[in-house]
């Protein structure tokens, strides 16, 4: 049985970044940059006013004080989008609105609120060179690398790309994913439970929703019957047209657990089966195809919480890496445990918790529903506490490590 860290390393080692594609800026949200963003020009492109105000040449008004103010008439008014080549005359003043280019000769802009205005400008202090002027290149110089390869495209990144007039962007394409749920007892949500032994399938809607937060819609979602022949047929087709295949259920050692058998029969190279974690021990991972671009196969357990935990710990990091992310694994956090927790030694437990910032640290409170079939606990939780393999007790007040759930982290 493989340890968690080794299993995650195996998954990431076989998750090869997918090819890039150029797409319109409007459709790029949630993708990752396939090439760095290098500034094609400086920002600001030209000296401009940071405020609505009046422009001066500071040296012309060195003697001005509150006791000896001067009254001036603006010789020109410039707004954003306009441009003036006329040089500021000696002892002159020009009206400049926010974003307007600074005309020649102006080296200071004073806010309108500081001046008495009524067709005239009453100046009662010496202007300060450079005040309220956004100088060309102050934010960014042409040729500067602003965003590296692997940066996730967020709304603010789209804003930056648009600032440079980029209507198209080179990104890593998102993976094609096929998703299956296995078991004759499962019934699609919305239909009637005809027998007492039937249950609603929560795994497919849950995993589909998790993928949607990455902007991915599974190309196939299907319920597999407890039948080896039908399972083989569906998985064979899915492997042909997908980058990743994910199954939920049918991966343990029961008489009707056919997923691993089918995967091996289809030529999927098993990398591991069973990981020393709880929940999620009966996890299968394998690859198919070339070493340079393998297709990934994940056989997740069937219990809903085990599905969510293994999805968070293994599948989502693989997807992020395929998409080009340089931060495929969410960072660890630390906090103070508010209640004692216990377990048997031997496996890394993922305890569903709520972590809340209090003063200068996180307070971590475990959920009461911790069994692998109990979704009520993880539905409220915002994080997974890592309860170390060898440890049997974590007392209240102990420092504990946790990871945010992706849905609470933003992917």
What is the structure about, briefly put?
With about 400 residues, the chain is an alpha/beta fold. Helices cover about 20% and strands about 30% of the residues.
General description of the model:
The protein has 411 residues and is α/β, with parallel strands linked by helices. The protein is built from eight helices and 29 strands. The chain has helices at 4-13, 155-163, 203-212, 228-241, 259-265, 304-322, 375-380, 406-409; strands at 20-24, 37-38, 48-49, 53-56, 70-72, 77-78, 94-96, 108-111, 116-117, 121-123, 133-134, 145-147, 168-172, 177-182, 186-187, 199-200, 220-224, 244-248, 269-273, 277-278, 284-289, 294-300, 333-337, 341-342, 348-358, 361-366, 383-387, 393-394, 399-404. Strands 17-14-18-22-21-19 form a six-stranded mixed β-sheet, sandwiched between helices. The protein has a five-stranded mixed β-barrel with strand order 23-26-25-27-29. A four-stranded mixed β-sheet has the order 6-7-4-8, with no helix packed on it. It is elongated and about 95 Å long. The mean pLDDT is 94.
């Amino acid at each position: 049985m493989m340890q968690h860290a080794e299993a995650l390393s195996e998954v990431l080692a076989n998750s090869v970044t997918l090819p890039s594609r150029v797409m319109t800026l409007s459709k790029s949200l949630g993708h990752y940059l396939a090439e760095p963003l290098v500034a094609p020009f400086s920002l600001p492109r030209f000296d401009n006013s940071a405020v609505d105000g009046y422009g001066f040449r500071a040296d012309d008004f060195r003697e001005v004080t509150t006791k000896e103010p001067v009254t001036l008439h603006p010789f020109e008014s410039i707004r954003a989008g306009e441009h003036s080549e006329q040089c500021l005359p000696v002892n002159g003043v020009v009206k400049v609105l926010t974003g307007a280019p600074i005309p020649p000769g102006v080296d200071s802009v004073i806010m309108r609120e500081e001046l008495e205005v009524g067709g005239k400008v009453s100046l009662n202090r010496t202007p300060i060179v450079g005040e309220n002027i956004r100088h060309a290149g102050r934010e960014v110089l042409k040729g500067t690398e602003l965003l590296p390869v692997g940066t996730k495209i967020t709304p603010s990144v789209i804003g930056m790309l648009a600032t440079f007039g980029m209507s198209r962007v080179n990104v890593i394409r998102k993976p094609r994913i096929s998703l299956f749920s296995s078991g004759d007892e499962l019934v699609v949500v919305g239909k009637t439970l005809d027998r007492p032994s039937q249950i609603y399938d929560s795994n497919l809607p849950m995993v589909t929703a998790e993928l949607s937060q990455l902007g991915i819609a599974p190309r196939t979602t299907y319920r597999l019957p407890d039948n080896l022949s039908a399972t083989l047929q569906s998985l064979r087709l899915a492997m042909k047209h997908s980058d990743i295949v994910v199954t939920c259920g049918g991966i343990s050692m029961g008489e009707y657990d056919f997923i691993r058998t089918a995967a091996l029969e289809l030529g999927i190279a098993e990398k591991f089966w069973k990981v020393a974690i709880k929940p999620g021990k009966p996890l299968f991972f394998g690859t198919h195809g070339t070493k340079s671009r393998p297709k990934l196969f994940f056989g997740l357990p069937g219990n809903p919480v085990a599905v969510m935990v293994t999805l968070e710990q293994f599948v989502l990091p693989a997807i992020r890496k395929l998409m080009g992310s340089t931060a495929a694994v969410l960072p660890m956090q630390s906090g103070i445990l508010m209640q004692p927790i216990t377990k048997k030694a031997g496996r890394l437990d993922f305890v569903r918790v709520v972590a809340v910032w209090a003063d200068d640290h996180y307070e971590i409170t475990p959920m009461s529903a911790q069994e692998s079939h109990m979704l009520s606990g993880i539905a409220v939780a915002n994080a997974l506490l890592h309860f170390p393999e060898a440890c049997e007790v974590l007392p209240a007040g102990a420092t504990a490590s946790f990871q945010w759930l992706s849905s609470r982290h933003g992917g």
